[in-house]
Design a protein that fits this description.
Number of domains: 2
Largest sheet: 6 strands, antiparallel
Length: 383
């Protein structure tokens, strides 16, 4: 689904890099400038052409006309095909997707800042190749990954020790952007696109793709298992942060549960459900429950909801990415919605602490079980 939030992110990435004039011109050509007047949480389906007339292309390119997410998924599959072809781990694909999201919103562009073109906005002037070469996704992606036979600027596999570096730092080492902090901010979006594309980001591989004189011990790496992948976050793809302050008066359950349980929830809980549905799309969710085995739970008090992710996140990359997305949105908006704590993927986040810590089951649940450890659903409690 491509909505005004996607457009806003794309514009921020363009205008922040000094592309305002070109971004505006592209919008005029594409006929989507009217999207700017949409409501902040609109859910209508709109489309965006990936490139203006005269855009680059080769056989097998994703169609430019269509929902942006579908276009992005198509490019993600092609980028990953090069990583697989090179024997690279899933982590390499994730970094490439994060980079392309910042540079072009994961589209193959025939224009850019100065002489930049293509998926990664590589510049002919600094040695990446000719403009025509860089418009070809296979050449551009191969250049990004680097190694033998690649252009002069160092690519990912040319960076010693990259598997142990934060993902955003690796992207910056390749791109040498004036805005180095932006790559890490697109990690969750990249994970979601990868999940939609069926890409295994946990895939093992050779991080240096057989590069001569590669660092010792670099013959293989597990895709995304080491702690260095968190970019300062806690636990997989989970965002962390500072404690969330706020005053939330006590509320009684006085609203019929909008998730259809037949029970009653607080107005704050009902409002959270409405916002979650508006911002996260279709959700399998249940709030009120008698919880006879745990009467102190927030569920019978109408102050908690469980959002199912469809599978055990330990066994499904798609379920894990969806759970991360839900949990991160819940804590990002906690100051506005009154979220008290969140439990997901064997960890618990609280507004008072502001960080994730291991979840031990509270003496009620088995934290190693898919449900007890909250690997198959995200629990959200409100004040």
């Amino acid at each position: 689904m491509f909505d005004e939030r996607d457009l806003g992110r794309g514009l921020l990435s363009v205008t922040g890099r000094g592309w305002f004039a070109k971004g505006a011109a592209a919008l005029a050509v594409l006929g989507v400038a009217s999207l700017l007047i949409l409501a902040p949480f609109g859910g209508g389906t709109v489309t965006q052409a990936a490139c203006p007339p005269g855009a680059p292309g080769q056989a097998g390119d994703p169609k430019a006309n269509g929902p942006l997410r579908a276009v992005q998924v198509g490019w993600a599959k092609l980028i990953d095909s090069v990583a697989v072809e090179r024997g690279l781990p899933g982590k390499a694909t994730l970094i490439a997707l994060m980079t392309a999201l910042v540079e072009t919103d994961l589209q193959n562009l025939a224009y850019g800042d100065r002489d930049s073109v293509g998926l990664f906005q590589q510049r002919p002037e600094v040695g990446w190749g000719t403009a025509e070469e860089l418009k070809q996704w296979h050449y551009a992606t191969t250049a990004f990954f680097g190694g033998r036979g690649s252009p002069f600027p160092p690519g990912l596999v040319d960076i010693d020790g990259w598997p142990s570096m934060p993902l955003g730092d690796v992207a910056q080492r390749v791109q040498r952007s004036a805005y180095p902090d932006r790559y890490a901010l697109r990690e969750q979006e990249a994970r979601g696109i990868a999940a939609d594309a069926g890409i295994d980001l946990t895939r093992s591989g050779n991080p240096y793709a057989g590069r001569p004189n590669a660092p010792a011990g670099g013959s293989a790496v597990d895709g995304l298992q080491d702690a260095s992948n968190n970019c300062g976050q806690s636990g997989g793809g989970l965002s962390s942060g500072k404690p969330v302050d706020g005053v939330w008066p006590e509320q009684k359950p006085s609203v019929t549960d909008p998730t259809g349980t037949g029970g009653m929830v607080t107005p704050r809980t009902a409002a959270w459900v409405a916002e979650a549905r508006k911002n996260l799309g279709t959700l399998s969710m249940s709030c009120w429950d008698a919880h006879l085995w745990n009467p102190t739970s927030d569920h019978p008090r109408g102050k908690a909801c469980d959002v199912m992710v469809g599978a055990d996140g330990r066994k499904s990359a798609q379920a894990r990415a969806r759970g991360d997305q839900i949990a991160n949105w819940a804590i990002k908006t906690a100051a506005q919605t009154g979220v008290h704590y969140v439990i997901w993927y064997g960890k618990i986040w609280s507004a008072r602490r502001g960080t994730w810590i291991p979840y031990n089951g509270g003496g009620v649940y088995n934290p190693t079980d898919a449900t007890g450890g909250h690997f198959d659903h995200v629990h959200v409690s409100l004040w």
